[in-house]
Amino acid sequence: MVGIGGVIRNQAGEILHIYCRELGESTNNEVEFVALEQGLRILKNVQSSKAIVEGDLSLVISVAKKISGGTKASRATKHWRLAKVTENIA
Prior knowledge:
two-stranded antiparallel ribbon; alpha+beta; 2 strands
């Protein structure tokens, strides 16, 4: 059993939202991507246009940079299991 979690803060460092969710069985890469996806969905719902994303898995950071730099999600990673979540992140 694995899960995700994250914290969204404003520019003053105040906590605006904390989230967590169980995912069942998954790889560490999938978990990190789903956590990013969930955080971005929350930011979209509060209509925030600027964000600083922090993470500890270099694969997620690398793919997120590629996507934000204009690379199509389908080309940002070669991991087929991550295709749907990277598309959602884009």
